[in-house]
Amino acid sequence: MTSYLDRLIADPTSFHDAPYAQAFTLSREEIDRLHLEGARKRFAELRPGLSVLDKLDTSKNSGV
User: Fold this and answer.
1) Which positions ≥6 away from 38 have C-beta within 8 Å?
2) Is residue 5 within 8 Å of 33, Cβ to Cβ?
3) Looking at the predicted structure, is the pLDDT value of residue 37 above 90?
4) Which pLDDT belongs to residue 33?
5) Cα–Cα distance for residue pair 63/60, rounded to 1 Å
6) What is the pLDDT of residue 46?
7) CA 18 → CA 6, 7, 15, 23, 28, distances in Å?
8) Under a CB-based contact definition with an 8 Å cutoff, are residues 38 and 13 in contact?
9) What is the DSSP string of the chain?
10) How confident is residue 64, by pLDDT bands cut at 50, 70 and 90?
11) Which residues contact 54 (CB under 8 A, 6 or more apart)?
12) Is the full-model pTM beyond 0.70?
């Protein structure tokens, strides 16, 4: 079974299908992970269109 956190990372809009109280079960670390994954996805979406982001992309060199 996929965890609530995994579902949110895969599809942030999936919170609409979850019970209201389930959002309050996430720990601070899980929320931080969710935010980081969201930022990574958004960076990956925007990077190709903005050369300045391409220059900031350290993942090409660090293997992240």
Assistant:
1) 9, 12
2) yes
3) yes
4) 94
5) 6
6) 84
7) 13, 10, 5, 8, 19
8) no
9) ---HHHHHHH-GGGGGGS-GGGGGG--HHHHHHHHHHHHHHHHHHHGGG-HHHHHH-THHHH--
10) low
11) 47, 48
12) no
